[in-house]
Amino acid sequence: MFACCTLFASPFALAARKTCPDFVDINHADVSQLRCLRGVGEKRAAAVVTFREMHGPYPGPASLAAVVGPKMAQRLRERVVVNVPAAPR
């Protein structure tokens, strides 16, 4: 039974991985891009976006801890990048 389920789930998992970037910019990513990060589901991804909209851009990867907690932020550091938007002129 497990092998059967694994075979059917495998193509979906592979398709999802192909559409995920190697790195996710937490200042520009939408919910679907944030969900590419391991351990980040729909609710957590939405919380990251909402926090960014309410408080402005994340200054660095460590600031993600305010939303996902310090342990999760540490685990995500390898795949998270932060491009701070330029200040308007």
Automatic annotation (TrEMBL):
The keyword Protease does not apply. Residues 1-15 form the signal peptide. Keywords: Signal. InterPro entries: RuvA_2-like. The keyword Protein biosynthesis does not apply. It holds the Pfam family HHH_3. It comes from the Bacteria. Transmembrane segments: none annotated. This is Helix-hairpin-helix domain-containing protein.
